[in-house]
Design a protein that fits this description.
mainly alpha, Growth Hormone, Chain: A, 3 domains, globular
C-alpha cells in the first residue's frame, strides 16, 4: 500500500507542476516584457512555444513509453522540466526564454505521456476513479493557485522566482520517483520507432495549433486546412505501418476510447476560454479591479479541486458515461446562463454560475479520464494518456481560437476601442452561446460512448466490452 501511495504522490505533484507554471506565468508576462524588452508577439510565444512543443511530442512519447518503459521517460521528463525551468529563470534575453520554454514543453510532454499511465497501472479498476480524481484535482489546484502565488512571487521576488520554484519542486520529485516507481520492462526490444508517422503528425499538429487563432485570415485557413489534411495522411501512414505510432484500430473499434476523447476535446474547446472571457467582462464591462476579478473567478477552480476526487470515486461505482454526461449537462446550463450577461448582472449570480460550472467540470473530467484509461489494454496506457493530453491541448487552442474569431467578427475595427463596451459584451455573449451549443453536442458524444463495465465482469471482459461497444 505504501508503494501505491508513493506513486499517487509522485504523479499528483507532477500533474500539479505544469498547470501551475502555465497559470502563474500568465500573471508574470507583463513583468517579463518590461525586463526583457519583449513586445506582445514575443510574450505570446512564451506561452505558445510551450503549448506547441508539448502537443507535438505527446503522442510519440506516449508510444515510446509503452514500448520502452514509462519510469525512465517520466524521470527524464521531470529532469528536463526542472533544467528548462532553471534556464527560464536565469534567461537574460527573449531568445533564451522562448528556447527554454520549448524545452519545458518537451519535458511536460514526457510527464503528460507517462504520469496517468503509471498511476492507472498501479491501481485496480475498483480504485481507479478515485485516484484519477485526485490527479485531476491536482491539475485544477495548480490552475487555482498559479495566479495567486505567481502574482505574489512576481511582486516580492520577481518573475524568475516562479521558474525557480518549479525547479525546486522537480528536484523534490526526482529522488522519490527513482526510489518508488516500479522498474521498467522493455516491451518490444526489436521494435522500430515510427519516425515518418511522427514527423507528419508533428507538422500537422503544429499547423493546426499555430494556424487556428489566425482564422479568419487567409494564412490561418491555409495552415489549419493543411494541418487537418496532414492528419488524414498520418492516419493513412499508420494504417499501413508495421509498427505504427498509434494503433488506428483504437479509433475504429473502441468506441469508449473514441467518444471519451472526443468529449474531452469538445469540453476543453467549449470551456478553456471561460476565464479569459469573464476576466474581460469583469474588468472592462463591470470595471472591477484585476484583484477583485481574480477573487471572483477562483470560485470555479476551487469547486473543481474539491469535487474531482469525489466524482472520480463515484465513477468507480456508476458508469463513467453517466457521471461525465451529467457534468457536461451542468456545464451547458452554466455556459448558456452566461450568454445572458449584462452590465448590471449580479455578482452573486456570476459566482453561483461559476460554482455550477466547477461542479460540472469536476463531474466530467475525472470520470471521463477514468473511461479513457480503463478502455484500453495496460500495454496501451501510455498512448491513451498521450491522446487524452493531446485532446486537452488542441481543445484549449480551439477554445481561444473560437473566442478570438467571434470577437474579431463582432468588434470589427472597434475591437481596440475602450469605449466599445456594448460591442464587447455582445461578442462575449455570442461566444458563450457558441460554447453552450458546442458543449451540448459534446454531451451527445459522452452518452454515445457506451457502457464501460458491468458489475460481474472481469477486467479482461471490460476491455472486450469497451472494444466492441
Amino acid at each position: 500500500m505504501q508503494g501505491k501511495k508513493s506513486i499517487l504522490f509522485i504523479t499528483t505533484i507532477s500533474s500539479f507542476l505544469t498547470p501551475f507554471m502555465g497559470s502563474a506565468i500568465n500573471i508574470a508576462l507583463p513583468a517579463m516584457g518590461l525586463e526583457l524588452e519583449m513586445n506582445t508577439i514575443l510574450l505570446g510565444w512564451v506561452s505558445t512555444s510551450y503549448l506547441l512543443a508539448a502537443a507535438i511530442f505527446l503522442l510519440p512519447f506516449g508510444r515510446f513509453a509503452d514500448r520502452n518503459g514509462r519510469k525512465r521517460l517520466f524521470i527524464s521528463g521531470i529532469i528536463l522540466f526542472g533544467i528548462a525551468s532553471l534556464l527560464s529563470g536565469i534567461a537574460w534575453n527573449s531568445t533564451i526564454l522562448i528556447a527554454s520554454r520549448l524545452l519545458n514543453g518537451i519535458g511536460g510532454a514526457m510527464i503528460y505521456a507517462t504520469a496517468l499511465a503509471i498511476l492507472t497501472s498501479a491501481y485496480p479498476k475498483s480504485e481507479r476513479g478515485r485516484v484519477l480524481g485526485i490527479n485531476v484535482a491536482s491539475v485544477y489546484l495548480g490552475l487555482s493557485l498559479g495566479p495567486t502565488i505567481g502574482g505574489f512571487l512576481t511582486m516580492i521576488m520577481g518573475w524568475q522566482s516562479i521558474f525557480i520554484l518549479n525547479t525546486l519542486l522537480s528536484i523534490i520529485i526526482i529522488p522519490i520517483a527513482i526510489k518508488n516507481l516500479p522498474g521498467d520492462d522493455k516491451k518490444s526490444p526489436d521494435s522500430v520507432f515510427d519516425l515518418s508517422g511522427s514527423m507528419v503528425y508533428a507538422i500537422s499538429i503544429a499547423l493546426i495549433i499555430y494556424g487556428f487563432p489566425k482564422i479568419p485570415s487567409t494564412s490561418g485557413i491555409i495552415m489549419v486546412s493543411a494541418g487537418f489534411s496532414g492528419l488524414g495522411l498520418f492516419a493513412f501512414i499508420e494504417s499501413r505501418a508495421d509498427d505504427p505510432l498509434i494503433n488506428i484500430s483504437l479509433f475504429r473499434k473502441n468506441m469508449v476510447f473514441v467518444f471519451s476523447n472526443l468529449a474531452a476535446f469538445i469540453n476543453y474547446s467549449a470551456t478553456f476560454a471561460l476565464v479569459f472571457l469573464l476576466s474581460i467582462y469583469l474588468q472592462q464591462v463591470c470595471r472591477y479591479t484585476p484583484g477583485q476579478a481574480g477573487l471572483i473567478l477562483v470560485a470555479q477552480p476551487v469547486m473543481m479541486t474539491i469535487l474531482s476526487p469525489l466524482a472520480g470515486k463515484l465513477s468507480d461505482k456508476i458508469e463513467p458515461r453517466i457521471v461525465a454526461s451529467l457534468g457536461m449537462g451542468l456545464t451547458v446550463i452554466g455556459l448558456f446562463a452566461f450568454s445572458f450577461l449584462s452590465s448590471g448582472t449580479s455578482i452573486y449570480f456570476i459566482i453561483a454560475m461559476l460554482m455550477l460550472l466547477g461542479f460540472g467540470f469536476a463531474l466530467f473530467s475525472s470520470p471521463n479520464t477514468n473511461a479513457v484509461m480503463s478502455s484500453v489494454k495496460p500495454t496501451e496506457y501510455g498512448i491513451a494518456s498521450a491522446t487524452l493530453g493531446t485532446m486537452r491541448l488542441t481543445g484549449q487552442t480551439m477554445s481561444m481560437g473560437i473566442t478570438l474569431l467571434v470577437l474579431a467578427l463582432v468588434l470589427g475595427e472597434s475591437r481596440n476601442d475602450v469605449a466599445s463596451a456594448d460591442q464587447l459584451l455582445s461578442g462575449i455573449k455570442i461566444t458563450f452561446t457558441v460554447f453552450a451549443l458546442l458543449c451540448l453536442a459534446g454531451t451527445w458524444f459522452s452518452l454515445k460512448r457506451g457502457k464501460l463495465r458491468h458489475s460481474d465482469q472481469s477486467d479482461q471482459e471490460v476491455l472486450n466490452q469497451a472494444k466492441n461497444n
